[in-house]
Amino acid sequence: MPRRVMLATAAGGLAAALLTVPSASATTAAATQDGTKPTIVLVHGGFADASGWNAVIDRLQHDGYKTIAPANPLRGIPTDAAYINSVLKSIDGPIVLVAHSYGGAVITNAAVGVDNVKALVYIAAMAPDEGEKLVDLFGKFPGSQIPDSVREVPYTNADGSTGVDLYLKPDKFRAAFAADLPVSTTRLMQATQRPFAASSYTDVTAGAAWRTIPSWAVVATEDKAIPPALERFFYKRAKSHVYEAKRASHVPMMSQPGLVTRVIKDAARAVD
After folding, report:
1. Residues with Cβ < 8 Å from 24, sequence gap 6 or more?
2. Would you say 124 and 231 are in contact if contact means Cβ atoms under 8 Å apart?
3. What percent of the chain has pLDDT over 90?
4. Which of 238, 117, 226 is nearest to 176 (CA)?
5. pLDDT confidence of residue 157
C-alpha cells in the first residue's frame, strides 16, 4: 500500500475512534443528568457570600454533582427561609441541602415540608429547634468572639422602621471568623462581607427539619464564632452523623474543602 494511502487510512481510523470514545467532560455531564445523583444546594451564612463554597463546588462538580449556591438574603430567618424554600421547590429530584453557620438556622426552617430534601448537612452551623432563638442558644456555651467583634449599622426598612445590620470589624474579622486562612484571603473576605440583620438572633424558629430529615454535620474544633460545644450540642440532639474538622476555624469549607466535600458525598450516597 502506498505510504500516502496508509497515512490517510490511519488518520481516518483515529478520527473514528475519537468520535466513538466519550470525552471526560461528556462523561461528567452524563453523570450529572442521569438522575442518580442528588442536587447539592449550598447555603452560606452571615458575614459571607456563596463564594465561600467555591472549593467545595469545584470538587462536587468534578465528581458529577449538580450544584446550586443561592444568595442567602440575610434579612432574618422568616425572609431567608422563605426564599431558600422557593429555591428548593424549583428543583426536580432529590436534594442534599448543605449550610454553613447562620445558614443552618435558615435550612432548618426552609426544608420543612419539602419532600425531595433527602439529607441535611450542617457545616459549623446552627441547628435550632422549633420555638428557639439564636440569641438564647449562643448563651448556652462560652467561647464565641462574635459579640465583641460586631459593628452595628442602622438602616431604614421599606415601611419606615429601623433595622440593624451586623458587620464584623476589620481588626476582628480574621480571629473571629477565619483564623486558619491566609491574611490575604481574609482581607478580601472582610472587605466583601455581607452583613446580616440583627433580628436573625431574636427570630423564633418555626420548624425543625432535622427532626424528620437525616443529617450529617461537621464540628470545627477551633471555631471562634460558634463554640464547638454548641455545635456538638446541636448535632447530638439532631442525631447527626458527626465529623470533626481538626484545628479548623469557622470556615472549614474553605480551609478543609476535601473533608467537607467527603461529608456531603457521604450524605448524597446515603440517599441515592
Report:
1. none
2. yes
3. 85
4. 226
5. 87
Q: Which residues touch 156 (CB under 8 Å, ≥6 apart)?
A: 162, 163
Question: How does strand 39-43 pair with strand 241-245?
Answer: unpaired
Range in 47-56, 153-162, 238-247 the model is least confident about: 153-162
Name the grid cell of 228: 464547638
Q: Is 97 helix (H, G, I), strand (E, B) or coil?
A: strand
Helix (H) or strand (E) run with residue 168 in it: strand 162-168
Q: Is a pLDDT exceeding 70 seen at residue 1?
A: no
Closest CA to 43 of 94, 86, 128, 100: 100
Q: Where are the domains of the chain?
A: 29-271
E strand segments, 54-104 = 67-68, 95-101
pLDDT tens for residues 156-210?
988 999 999 999 999 999 999 999 999 999 999 999 999 999 999 999 999 999 9
Number of alpha carbons in the 13 Å side-chain half-sphere of residue 10: 7
Beta strands in the chain (DSSP E): 39-43, 67-68, 95-101, 117-125, 150-156, 162-168, 196-197, 215-220, 241-245
- Sequence-distant (6+) residues with CB within 8 A of 129 are 205, 208, 211, 237
Q: Which runs of consecutive H residues, i.e. helices, occur in 157-256?
A: 173-177, 183-191, 228-237, 252-255
Task: Report which of 201, 171, 198 is spatially closest to residue 186, judged by C-alpha positions.
Answer: 171
The domain made up of 29-271 is a member of CATH 3.30.70.640: no
